Predict the structure.
Amino acid sequence: MKRLACLLATGAMLLTLCACSGSSDPSPSPSSDPTPTVEPTPTPPLYTNPLTGEATDTDLSGQKPVTVVINNIRAAMPQQGTSKADILYEAVAEGGITRMLAVFQDPADLTTIGSVRSARDCFLDLALGHDGVFVHAGGSHYVYDTLAQLGVNDVDGVKGTNASGIFFRDPDRTPGVTYAWEHTLMADGATLVKNLTASGILGPHSDGYEYEMTFTEDGTPADGQSANTLTVSFSGYKTTTFRYDSAKHVYMVEQYGDAFTDGNDDTQVSTTNVLVLKTDYSFMDDGYYSDVSLTSGSGYFACGGKMIPITWEKGGHYDQLRYYTQDGKPLTLGVGKSFVCIIPTTQSVVAE
């Protein structure tokens, strides 16, 4: 009897040990089940910069951009504020010397801009095509005639129109360099935004205005020729060079044989899109100032190290520039900044 009791007790112990052992149950316990990872769905940006296609935190589409005529003679380098521009236009002013129009869709974070120089008709027409606030420091008598004819509410650092508190002279803005007086007029970005917003000059677009350009994440032309280096000639005095940086997916800009830098922080100016517009240059009736035709013409578009031929048109003062592929379809730019070179038809473009 005692022997039977011992056998029964031993059997019970063995059953208990087996039940407690995980090796006898191949199925995992519920607590060891892996929790599936749910990838978050990317949230598309609510807003984009209408001049670049880049994501923004605020809606800028209904706001006038600020456009500034920038000095580009060698003796005035470096410029300041140019690396922040969404679009840079470069064209010959006179005597082979170029100037630029810098277009800023959101000028809120601008510091010093300049040096600001006198206006020419082509820069006014480019600014009006953006429905932009036109900032300059004087101008030819031709451009003053056009300003008066059109009733443009401009910002003039020479005549003082709408310019209170915005401009200042800085002949020593670069250590070790003293600039000639005509190269010293600078604009304070914060004051510009504050004062022009308070006066209503910087504000919503004119009724019905909408910038029409479209963008894609990769704007590299599918059938383009190689354009890792693009050399654009404006005159015997001035060329601008664009070198594609495949790591950054932008063109780094050079001029006067060196990097084109922003004197505010030594940043080299870069751009996603390079547009070259070839057009007729002639002289105004004084035989001095350039008369730049902005009606229509041919040109080139480079992005991602490739280049294709394009056509373009503008027309009247307030018309915006429109770009087309060779088959007549509207051109789509890559998301990012643009640099637009407006060169005489007699000048060359070399892509390598």
Remarks:
- The CA atoms of residues 215 and 332 lie 5 Å apart.
- The two ends are 104 Å apart (CA to CA).
